[in-house]
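User: quick one, sequence for these tokens?
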């Protein structure tokens, strides 16, 4: 009897150590009851379908208390599997911080006068990558917290497009030898279909109040990003299309 008790304690301890609060799990059953209390006889709030993501908010032995949208309840831990991204490092970034990966090619031109201003709505954080059009290289990346904005300068003259990620719980890790950036909750990834031209316009002469001035157009862009609550897709003022996390990280 004593040996059984010891083995039981070891099993429960290892389960608790493996499962972490705020980790995301995926339902691995065709139908799984979401219950009021952590036992099989408790009232069922409803059924979760296979593939549904749930957020662990508490642990009681082999039961997880989870958050699913606006609902909370208990489910049996043996019927869910951990997302691989749970093992990535959780990053605590502020607006303007640069999530660095070794597959990026940082480039600055401190004499450049153009700017890119991005404002994001409430409900999600954003990670934005500025991609060089002719090479596909990421020359800048920055993080924007929900409800905040950023103005990026020193962008070299060239043409670019954007890759945009949104969600909660930003993490970084290594997959197949490559640096990966992900949102572990409510993640959505898109690529901009519009080209941002940061080349200075040609110089020209304009007459203002009878005086002649040499003027030049300075590239400047202002974008607004937000998420739709139904499917977490982007709601913005420029054209985008949905991409995979793998494509976002290329």
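Assistant:
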């Amino acid at each position: 009897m004593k040996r059984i008790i010891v083995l039981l304690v070891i099993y429960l301890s290892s389960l608790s150590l493996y499962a972490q609060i705020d980790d995301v799990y995926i339902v691995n059953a065709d139908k799984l009851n979401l219950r009021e209390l952590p036992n099989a006889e408790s009232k069922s709030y409803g059924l979760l379908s296979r593939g549904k993501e749930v957020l662990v908010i508490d642990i009681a032995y082999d039961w997880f208390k989870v958050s699913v949208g606006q609902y909370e309840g208990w489910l049996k831990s043996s019927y869910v599997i951990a997302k691989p991204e749970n093992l990535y490092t959780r990053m605590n970034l502020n607006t303007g911080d640069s999530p660095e990966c070794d597959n990026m090619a940082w480039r600055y031109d401190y004499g450049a006068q153009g700017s890119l201003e991005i404002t994001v709505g409430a409900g999600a954080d954003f990670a934005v990558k500025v991609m060089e059009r002719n090479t596909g290289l990421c020359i800048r990346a920055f993080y924007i917290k929900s409800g905040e904005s950023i103005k990026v300068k020193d962008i070299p003259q060239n043409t670019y497009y954007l890759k945009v990620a949104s969600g909660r719980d930003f993490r970084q890790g290594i997959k197949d030898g490559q640096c990966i950036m992900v949102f572990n909750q409510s993640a959505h990834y898109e690529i901009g279909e519009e080209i941002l031209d940061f080349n200075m316009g040609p110089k020209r002469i304009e007459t203002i109040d009878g005086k002649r001035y040499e003027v030049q157009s300075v590239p400047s862009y202002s974008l607004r990003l937000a998420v739709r609550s139904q499917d977490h897709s982007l709601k913005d003022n420029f054209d985008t299309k949905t991409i995979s996390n793998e494509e976002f990280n290329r």
